[in-house]
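User: Can you write out an input/output pair for a complex, sequences first and structure second?

Assistant: Here is one pair. Inputs:
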Amino acid sequence: MPASPATFTFLGPEGTFTEAALMQVPGAAAATRIPASNVNAALDMVRDGSVDAAMVPIENSVEGGVTATLDAIASGPELRIIREVLVPISFVLVARPGVALTGIRRISTHGHAWAQCRLWVDANIPGAEYVPGSSTAAAAMGLLQEDAHYEAAICAPIVAQEQPGLAVLAENIGDNPGAVTRFILVGRPGALPERTGADKTTVVVPLPEDRPGALMEILDQFATRGVNLSRIESRPTGQYLGHYFFSIDADGHVQDARMADALAGLHRISPATRFLGSYGRADTQSIHVAPHTSDEAFRAAHEWVGGILHGVPLVQETASEASPTA
Amino acid sequence: MPASPATFTFLGPEGTFTEAALMQVPGAAAATRIPASNVNAALDMVRDGSVDAAMVPIENSVEGGVTATLDAIASGPELRIIREVLVPISFVLVARPGVALTGIRRISTHGHAWAQCRLWVDANIPGAEYVPGSSTAAAAMGLLQEDAHYEAAICAPIVAQEQPGLAVLAENIGDNPGAVTRFILVGRPGALPERTGADKTTVVVPLPEDRPGALMEILDQFATRGVNLSRIESRPTGQYLGHYFFSIDADGHVQDARMADALAGLHRISPATRFLGSYGRADTQSIHVAPHTSDEAFRAAHEWVGGILHGVPLVQETASEASPTA
Amino acid sequence: MPASPATFTFLGPEGTFTEAALMQVPGAAAATRIPASNVNAALDMVRDGSVDAAMVPIENSVEGGVTATLDAIASGPELRIIREVLVPISFVLVARPGVALTGIRRISTHGHAWAQCRLWVDANIPGAEYVPGSSTAAAAMGLLQEDAHYEAAICAPIVAQEQPGLAVLAENIGDNPGAVTRFILVGRPGALPERTGADKTTVVVPLPEDRPGALMEILDQFATRGVNLSRIESRPTGQYLGHYFFSIDADGHVQDARMADALAGLHRISPATRFLGSYGRADTQSIHVAPHTSDEAFRAAHEWVGGILHGVPLVQETASEASPTA
Amino acid sequence: MPASPATFTFLGPEGTFTEAALMQVPGAAAATRIPASNVNAALDMVRDGSVDAAMVPIENSVEGGVTATLDAIASGPELRIIREVLVPISFVLVARPGVALTGIRRISTHGHAWAQCRLWVDANIPGAEYVPGSSTAAAAMGLLQEDAHYEAAICAPIVAQEQPGLAVLAENIGDNPGAVTRFILVGRPGALPERTGADKTTVVVPLPEDRPGALMEILDQFATRGVNLSRIESRPTGQYLGHYFFSIDADGHVQDARMADALAGLHRISPATRFLGSYGRADTQSIHVAPHTSDEAFRAAHEWVGGILHGVPLVQETASEASPTA
C-alpha cells in the first residue's frame, strides 16, 4: 500500500458512519471514495486492484464482533488490516421539512440503529412502527423519494448536514450515549504499517484438534510470551458443526519479538493460521511490556543460545549470584 | 418449568424458522404459541410469567454466534437455557401466482437470508434489487398486500405451505446446502433438564483482570477437569472499550462432577460468573470422558481427602506398586 | 499421636544434631529418648508402636534434600510428618585434653560434616587426613577409646558439653556460618497437627505417564488453586530407570480448602498419590493467600454450585455490574 | 574437547565403579587415568587444564540424584557434561585369603554400598558391625594393611580381580539385583557432542520469583515445545532458606530446534540459567518427536513469520481447507 492511497472504497452509501470513519484517514478527504453495496464487494475491489483500500465496520461497544466482516477477510486471497478507526455513534431523527414528531407513524433505519434507539422512540413516539432499511443513510435518503412509505428516519448527523431536503427533529437519540463503533481499513499484503508501540495484531487460527486443551495450547502461545488478547471468538468453519477456528486480536505488532515468536508458535501447532495484519490501535493506548518479553530479552536469549551452539563459554555476570555456592 | 409447558413464545412472526424449531419440542404443536416481535420481548414474557418458555435463534453454521440473544439472556433477571434445537435451513423463492422469474426486479427477505442466497440470485435473477425485510416471513406476507413494492420474497418452506396466496418459484436456493441454524428454548430457573450424557453447559464469565493469563486461568478451570469447550466469545461489557466478559459453551452437564468443579473454580476467580443452563445437545453426540475426570474419580478423590482430614490411614491398594521401594 | 508423646526415637547416637532437634519439641527433654542406628530403624520403631514418634534429618541449606529419608517414609505402612524443626549447624573441633592443633594428623567425622569444614581444615591443619565416621558423635566418642587411630573429630557443640573427656580446640569451623539443617518428627496416621497459618504439606505423586505435560498437570493442581511449592524432586521409583515419582512440599495445610482441593485433583490424575503430612513450618513464615483461593471463596463457590444443582435462582449482587447491559 | 582426550581423571581410588565407568569411554583404556580424592578435585583438574575430562558419579536407580556433583558443576567456571555412562552395580564380599564368613565381625565399605547390601548381611552375617569407609575400593585395600580393624569389605568385582591379596567370599550380594549407577563425563566448554537422536540436556534454572506459578512458567517453556523432562530437583541456593534453583534433565539436544527455543525461553524468564550440556543418553532410547515440534516445523514457522515481516503474501496451500468458507 502506498503511504497515501489514491483511491478508497467503503461500505456505502455515502453518509454512513463508515464514510465518517474513512474521513479520519489522512488524505482520504481529498482522495477518490467509492461506496460499495456490501462488505464483500468492497473487499473484492481491493483484491482486484480497483482501489487501494477499503473501510468496513467491524464492531461496536454494544454489539460485539461483526463477525461476517472478519470472515470475509479471512477467506479468499489474502488481505491486510492496515488501520483501525473509532467513530462515536450519535443518532439523529430526520424527516422532511415541516413534519413534526406527532406526525410520525413509521420510522426507517438499519436494524442495528433501531435497536440502539428503542428507548428514545418508545418514550417520544410511542407506537411508532419500524420499517427495515438497508443502511441508516439509505433510510434517510428514501425520505426524499415520492413514494416513501415512512415519515422519518434515524441516521448519522453527517447525512442531515449534507442534505438540505432533510430536517433534524431530534439529536443524540441513542440509548447508549458513549457508543462507539470500530472500523478497519483493509489493503493488500505488502509493507506492514509502522510499529507505534500501541499496536494490535489480528489472526485466524484453525483449531488443530477438537479435544480438551487444544484451545489452551493456542492461547498459551500468547500467554507464555506475555502477549495480552483483546478479543477472541470461536467460529464454525462453515463446513460442518463441530469444527472451529479462532479469530483473535492480540496486543502488539508482529515486529515485536514476542509477537513474532507467538505467531511462529501458532504456525507450528496450526499451520493454516492466517495473519490478518498488525496495525495501530485506534485508542493509541500503549501496552505494558514485562522486561522478560521485551525485544532486548529476546535478543539476549537468542545470543545466549547462539553462543551455546557455537561452543563459546557462557558465564553470565549474574550467574555467580544466582547459582549455587560450592 | 413443568415437563410440558403449556405456553410458549417464539421470535415471530409465524412461519419463520424459529417457529419450525419450536415445533420440534414435544408438546409444542398442541400448545399455545405466541409470536414475539423481537428476542427481548420474547424473554420478557418468560421473565414476567406470561409464558413458560421462549424459542429464540442463537447461531447458524455460516454466521457464528448471534451474540445479541446471549447478551439478552445474560443480563437482567436470571433465565435458563433448557433445550437446544437444530433446524436445517432451506430457502424458497415465493411470489404471487402468475409471476415468473423474468418478471422479478426486487426481492425482499431478512438480511441474513439474502446473504445466504446471493449466488443463486446472481445466477438466476441478475440485477435483482434487495429490499430489506424484518424477517423472512414478513417479507413473504408483504407480497399479499396491495402496495407491495417488490415482486418476490425469500423465506422458509413452511410459509409457502400455509399460504395459498403464494407460489413457490424455486426451492433450495441457499448457497450452502447443508446450512443449519441453532435455536434455544429459554425458561426460568428451576429444576435442571435431566442429564443425558450428551449435554452442554453455557456460562458467562466476566474477565477478572485485563492482563496476560487471565483468560488462560478461566479456560484452565475447564481444561484441568477435562472439559472441552465448543464455543467461546469475548464480548465487551457495554460499559467501555477494553472490559470484557466471555460467553462459553462447554461439553457436559453441571450434574457431572467435573463440570460442577469447573464452575466452582470459575466462581472463585470471577464471582460474577453467570450460569445460563445445562441442557441436551441437539446433535446428541455423546462426550468422551477420561477416566480421571469421571464422577467416580471425583468421588474417590473426595473420599480420600476426607479420610486424611479425619485421621484415617489411607494406604491405597495400588500404592505399593507405584511408590518407591525401601 | 497423643499431644505429648511419652517416647521418642531419633537418628543416633546421642549428641548428634538430630538429638538437638528433638530437644526443641515440647516435652521431649523430659521424655524417653531412644537413639536408632539408622533412619529405617527409627521409622520401624514408630510403625510397630515401640515409640510414638521419630526425629530424622531431611535437608540442610547446603546439601538439599536427604532423599533417602523421604523415600523411607513414602514406602511401607503409612507414616505422618507431624513437625518440622530447624537446627543451626555449628561445628567444633574436639580432641583429648592436651592435644594441640599441631599434633593433629588425622580427623574423623561424618562425610557431610567433613565437606562443610574443608576450608577451615585446609587453612588451619593443612595436610590433615580424613577418617570416615558413621556420625559426628560417633567420631567424637571414638577419641575416648584406647585404639583410636585419629587425633581429632568434628562434631556438634552438644557432644563436647556433655563429655568431660573431650576438649574443644576450635569453634564455628563450618565454612558456611549460616548453615541450618532441617529435621522432621514422624508419627503414625491419626489426628492432624493443628493448622497454624504457616503450614506445609508433603506429598509423593507417581507420574501417571511419561509424556510432555504430565508433570505440568501435576503442578497445575497446585498452581490453579494458588498453592506455592517450596520443594520438588523427581525420584526414580527404584523399579527401573525412566519411571518417576515426585516428592513435593507445598505451602499450606490440608485443612485449607485450596490444599484439600489440590490433593483431590492429584488423586484423580494419580490415584497412588501419598499424603505424608500437614504440619507447621519451622520458620513460622505465614503464607499470603489470594482472595480467590481463601476458604471463604471455596465456601461461596460451593454454595453457588449447590444452588444451581438444586434449582435456586442465583443472581449475584455484583452480577449487574459485571455482566453485559441489555 | 578433542575427539580422544589424552588424559582423564575420575573419582578414585582405582578399582571403584567410577573407574569402571571411565573404561567404557572409547580410548580411555589406553589413556592416562588419574584418580581424584573427591568430585571437586576432579572438576578442578578439568577447569585448570590438567586433564581433558573427569568421570564422576551422578545418580543410581535406588538413591536418586547425587546432587552435590551437579551443584559442583553448576557453580564456578563453566563446565560441560559430554557423556553419560551407566554401570551395573554388583557387589562382592572380600577378605584376606583364609578368612571364612564365620570369622567376620566387622565389615567396611562406603555408606551407600552398605545400605544396598543390608539384607544380605543381616541374613548371612547377623550381628556384623559396620565400619565406615571413604570408598568401596579404599575399604577393600585397607584389608591389606597391618592394622586393619575389620575382617571384610564390600566392593566392586574389579578390585578383587586386580588384587591377588584379596579373596572373594560372596558375589552379587546387593539387595537390588538390577541396580545401575549413572556417571557423567565432564569437560570444558567447546564443541558440543554430536546429536544422536537419543540425547539429554541438563540445565540449572534459578527460580525468578517465589510465587505460585513461577515454576509452572519454567516448565511450560519445555512443555509448549513438546520437550519431556526426565529429572527435576529444586535445590536451595545455599544463600538462605526459601531461595531455590531447579536442576533439570530434558530429553533432546540443544541442536534440536525445540530445545534451543525452550532454552531461549528459559533465558528470558531467568537470565542466570546455566547450560550444563547436551549429550547422548546412556540408554540410547530415542525420543518421540511430535510433528509440530520437529526441526522442520520450526523452520517452516520461521519462514512464515519472515514472510510476514518482509511483506510477502502468505497464502498456505492448506489454508483453503482449514479457514472459513466465504
